[in-house]
Amino acid sequence: MNCRFCNTPLSQVFLDLGAAPASNSFLKPEELNSPEAYYPLKLFVCPDCSLVQVEEVKSSTEIFSSEYVYFSSFSRSWLAHAKAYVESTLPRLGLGKDSLVMEIASNDGYLLQYVRAAGVPCLGIEPTASTAKAAREKGVESLEEFFGVALAERLKAEGRQADLIVGNNVLAHVPNINDFVGGLRIALKDGGLVNMEFPHLYRLVESAQFDTVYHEHFSYLSLSSVRRIFAAQGLAVFDVEELPTHGGSLRIHARREGDPKAAETERLHAVLRMEQAAGMLTPAYYQGFQERVERIKAELLGFLAEQTLARKKVAAYGAAAKGNTLLNFCGVKPGQVAFVCDASPHKQGLFLPGSRIPVLHPDAIREQKPDFVLILPWNIKDEIMSQLDCIRQWGGRFVVPIPSPEVI
Q1: Which residue range is the domain that position 172 belongs to?
Q2: Within a domain: residue 200?
Q3: Which of 72, 84, 210, 320 suits a disulfide with 107, CB 3.0-4.6 Å?
Q4: Which tens digits make up the pLDDT trace of 84-113?
Q5: Are 300 and 278 in the same domain?
Q6: Helix or strand or coil: residue 120?
């Protein structure tokens, strides 16, 4: 395997989670007697550019198919995050009816609905038919295509370059990151701005967030590596914000190289210094992570075994991709976690890939009164605990698995 950015041969393994099915390949009831496809889930570190990456074992067209079940709008905290971004960014950039905001991986229109409501023209690029349909129902124009140089050239020829290009949690999801970033430069107007949000690799390592590793995430990003990738395509990353979303994310600000508005900020230099001081540009930083992950696995399985012996019922909340990584790596089965609840009707009635735990409506928590609720999307644990506060009525308690299993 070679690095997807600089083509350097890769040999250093950062994390090996064995084999697992794709995290969003939920099963229908009639598929339970059929075998599932398992793929190696192993992370490598590039010795040259320090990009952390998983091998592409399942194509993006297979992963982001018409049956894709992740809809962004079912998280209230994520909607609030998107709305706050739009309400602060559009006025700051002076965008109006003659502008164009483009979002890559626009999903179900969770963000662009607020752009549209502000009277600013917008365009979503979303390859999954199910979510693009939901966006169009919100009045958001959506192209069902993968983004890259070819699509960017076509949009440019149509006179549809953007004043603002947004991409939330998509940069990690593209197998050809050079083609994707090259497309950003082409699709951007002169003087335009690119904002990309992605989970920060530093937070993954420091907080042992190994469950954010799955086949849909091709790359695991530091500011240092992203800055280098963008520069290779003629884009200057000049500013960065540290965000609490997804356990700790970065929002980068980039413009075309030579843009007078692309003066580097102290915030950018501070994060770069932090990464360098932590040793993220050296192989030693990534050693020993496997042992930390194995310890979390042992602690969680010990907790579940204890509850099984005590005849306590454990349920889970949030049929999230990160939860599937956790459950499959630990080998958890329905006998240990009875069911998982999720607010998305697109997941209810299905079964988790690998573990085959049934996905139910959130009402099942109140009806079945489990003794413990394992919060799989721990990054929004406060939102979930508020929604499920009813479990206190029968003495139920919450369990957060990362950075180590904790009963609350």
Answers
A1: 146-282
A2: yes
A3: 72
A4: 999 999 999 999 999 999 999 999 999 999
A5: no
A6: coil
